[in-house]
Amino acid sequence: MxxxxxxxxxxxxxxxxxxxxxxxxxxxxxxxEVQLRVxxxxxxxxxxxxxxxxxxxxxxxxQGRLRRYYRLTDEGVAALDAEAERMAAGAGAAKRRIAxxxxxxxxxxxxxxxxxLLPPAAPGLAGGLA
Amino acid sequence: MxxxxxxxxxxxxxxxxxxxxxxxxxxxxxxxEVQLRVxxxxxxxxxxxxxxxxxxxxxxxxQGRLRRYYRLTDEGVAALDAEAERMAAGAGAAKRRIAxxxxxxxxxxxxxxxxxLLPPAAPGLAGGLA
DNA sequence: CAGAATATATCGGCTGCCGATATATATCGC
DNA sequence: GCGATATATATCGGCAGCCGATATATTCTG
Lengths: 130, 130
Prior knowledge:
The structure is a homodimer.
Chain A: H1 3-12, E1 17-18, H2 19-29, H3 38-50, E2 54-62, E3 65-72, H4 74-104, H5 122-126
Antiparallel strand pairs in A: 1-3, 2-3
Helix pairs in contact in A: 1-2
The structure holds a DNA duplex.
InterPro entries (chains A, B): Metal_resp_DNA-bind_regulator, Tscrpt_reg_PadR_N, WH-like_DNA-bd_sf, WH_DNA-bd_sf
Pfam family, one (chains A, B): PadR
Domain Transcription regulator PadR N-terminal (chains A, B): 8-81
């Protein structure tokens, strides 16, 4: 799943929204950090629809403007949930390894044992994702 | 930052590694879920080097095979840390909104108040990333 | 001796993101 | 009234990046 697709699904996770609303919502929920572009949106919407992760919920005409609302399917919710899980796991793995790196390398101010040997603690700290 | 770049940085976070070692390490640290391809690796390595996030640590010849070791720069560590933070925040936002969606829509079996109003708790739960 | 693993690297194709552009209506300030 | 901005849709071409295929070379295993 691409980053753009992830944020579209996230924007739709609490309620159905229309295209322009998704744009604004992604910016708001990411605290302005992620800006989903108009040129990106419709391709993502088409792909997610084709993949069965979202569906066209309804079309409304509000104040003379057409609004096309999309919502998550059950499959879409499951996919978003799984992706969030993967991201959290990846983030956790990175954090743990950064900590392991800080503990392993700079803890030794100058020369010590043989040459380039790792400190005994390092391998076990790495751990997996699950 | 691309996904591939994130995993390369993560693989290098605890200690310097060579290209083929990064490939194996990414697969291992992700519990087999992420498979970084050979055709992807060297482009990523070049870009990360150009961006100053990694540097060539040393070159060794072990058992007749050349090994080119890379390591994270301070900037690389900071970038990886920031990206991990963003991913964790994104994952958290998705999880919260999924929960809000489940609470908002299917919790009401049939018609109730006005029309399409959200339950009072919903807006506050959405929250930002930071 | 053949095949797999280790280790490097390149290239073409395809996917996907983005900026620009187009169209249309409503609103706001001047 | 008129231009600028906001709302709302959509398309297209360029560019970046991932992947499969391919190439080369050595070591290890069967």
